[in-house]
Amino acid sequence: MPKLTIAIDGPAGSGKSSVARRVAELLQYVYLDSGAMYRALALKALKRGIPLNDESRLEKLAKETRIELKSPTPEHEAAGAKNCVFLDGADVTQEIRKPEAAQAASHVAAFQKVREVLVAEQQRAGAGGGVVMEGRDIGTVVFPSAELKIFLDAAPETRAERRWKEHREKGDKLTLAEVFDEVIERDKRDRERKVSPLVRATDAVLVDNTAMGIEETARLIVMLAQERERELARAGRPG
Ligand code: CDP
Ligand code: CDP
Q1: How would you class 26 by CB atoms within 10 Å of its CB: exposed for 0-12, middle for 13-18, buried for 19 or more?
Q2: Whether the CB of 102 sits within 6 Å of ligand 2
Q3: pLDDT tens for each residue of 160-175
Q4: 239 lines ligand 1 (CB under 6 A)
């Protein structure tokens, strides 16, 4: 069967990482988390004290930064991580999940020049197909000709509650209201920015998983993917 490129986009807490990872596992594809790259770059900017509104310094930083995504170690997996993230060789898997890193990521992600560097990296990583990549602009900008595009969504209260539960399990003492505000503010910034905003691609399938579990959502996407694989095979595309 031909191997597809599957793009999953959606707002914070919609289930992109969990679902994309499971879809990749079921199809034996590679899972790539583009948000982790923005988070890692933002973490480095915070550590270096680079202002989050300085596009040219952030672009330079992006160009001299090495971000690697690897399968999670058993310890990281037990702590809920979907992948291991290395920033210039250092393990930042846990650190990038803090709300400060998430907020900073959505600031650095608003700049065209920063995005160009990371998008080129993502396109290289996903070249060849057989990948499930998730983020905000995968179906619109990174892989506009992906054979299957999903726009994953869920009610804002549900998305915030999911994120809050994750923080609580890690021992972070954030209230549900604080997490709700963080998620809503970041979504607004991601949706309203001029460059590559979070938007459903016209040819993306909308999947609202407010009332669905990870496994159910992943299996629905796998069914759609297998249908596409069969269509392409019938059309004579080689595997
Ligand atoms: O990547 P994204 O921010 O879109 O979401 P995620 O990190 O995959 O999911 C956020 C949390 O919601 C995780 O703890 C998932 O286990 C949980 N989740 C859920 O309970 N039900 C779903 N259908 C999807 C995710
Ligand atoms: O897991 P969650 O959905 O909360 O966030 P994420 O996917 O890790 O992304 C963190 C931030 O990076 C987002 O709020 C976006 O501002 C940015 N991002 C982006 O602009 N484009 C992407 N393809 C992925 C993430």
Answers
A1: middle
A2: yes
A3: 999 999 999 989 899 9
A4: no
